[in-house]
Every structure is written in C-alpha cells, then in structure tokens.
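Request: Give me one sample?
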Amino acid sequence: MIDEPNILTSKKTFRQFFTYALIGVLTNVLGYAIYLILTYLWGAPKLTMTALYFVGAEHVKGVVA
C-alpha cells in the first residue's frame, strides 16, 4: 500500500533537487561563457580566473550576509 504523505514528500524532494541541479548547471554555463569571452578579449586566462573568483566571492558574500 502506498502512503500518500511519502509520495508528496518524494515529489517535493525531487522538485527541490531538480531546481538545485538546474540552477547549478545554468550558473556554471554562464560562468564558463563569461570566462571564454573575457579570455578572448584579454587573452590572459589567469587574470580572467582571478577576476571571476573575486566577483564570485563578492556575490556569495552578499548572498550570505
């Protein structure tokens, strides 16, 4: 016999996981696209990664605070 609350919990958990995964993939695709554009324009991969690191750190700092 199937217990209804478990089915709803499973659907909610799946939806939360799917949303988390989708946001993670989109964030990484966007970050990589920005990296490719900046590397193309500047031609300096290390400088580009340094700049993106600080932008990401400031974003997380703003979200957490």
Summary: The longest helix spans residues 4-42. DSSP finds two helices and no strands in the chain. The mean pLDDT is 85.
